[in-house]
Amino acid sequence: MCLEVRVTSQKQTGDVSMKTIRTLFKVGMTFASFFAAFAGHAQQGYPNRPVKIIVPFAASGPADNYARFMAQRLQDALGQPFVVDNRPGAGAIIGTDAAAKAPADGYTLLMMSNAQTVNESLIPNKPYNLVKDFAPIAPINYSDLVLVVNPSVQANSLQDLIKLARANPGKMNYASSGNGTPYHMAGELFKYMANVQMTHIPYKGSAAARTDVLSGQVDMMFDAVTTMSENIKAGKVRGLATTGRVRSAVTPELPTMSDDGVPKYEAVIWLGMMAPVGTPEAIVAKLNAEINKIVNTPEVKATWAKQGAVPMSMSAPVFAKYVAEDVAKWATIVKVSGAKAD
Questions:
Q1: Do the Cβ atoms of 155 and 241 come closer than 8 Å?
Q2: Domains, the chain, ranges and CATH?
């Protein structure tokens, strides 16, 4: 009888223990569901206070202008202020680093360009890694460059120029606004993909470089298509090709580099939005949807077309892949060219 009592007691104890475990499990699941719902609600309510957009470039430049354009429209769409915070310096490193170190809560964003993807290899000793420390949100737009030559250069097409450069290795030269700038890297990409040798002449800014190309002191340069279009029309320089995948609306008479001698060539200036890594996916997705909606409105497309800018639309994962591929592309060009930052 005693034995039966002990067995029954153990069974009862076991039953109580299992009931306790089940109860605790249910309580735990209830709390988990509550916090998940709370977090989801918080993200659905994003933003509920001002959002800062760090621009690692000087005020009044193209990146700053487009950042302010997007800030106003995001504010209109989401009902909270989007405030531009210019933090230029050290080749965009100062502002980019500040964004990387900000809380990953969606209230600090980074306006970035392919200057940062070039910097990954051009300036390797940085306090951040663009691919690992940021969550890409969405691209915004891109602007074509145009390859122009002084009229004294005996080349009426890109193919003519390639033949001329190959016949005179190292003797032709091209200007840029400085080492590591998009204009410099466009030239190095051309040299690499067209298998030509030319001498790079860096200047402290595009204006001085442009002046010497116009005067014939330098043979050629890659420049912003909107900046050079009037000089092309006036016959002060000869436009050979633009650098995007399709012809520029500003100079539709010019072929692309890819169509006229250098297949798959592309060297544009593009802009995009990123956030610190760890930013909730729901917030990234919400911002991605709003940005894509803004850049695809007919009004924005028409306004930007006059400025030589073309809207870009991608999902956040596709944009992440695009950024990583751009980093790898320019790493190759920096390596083969031996380019160094100023």
A1: no
A2: 51-142+269-337 (3.40.190.150), 145-242 (3.40.190.10)
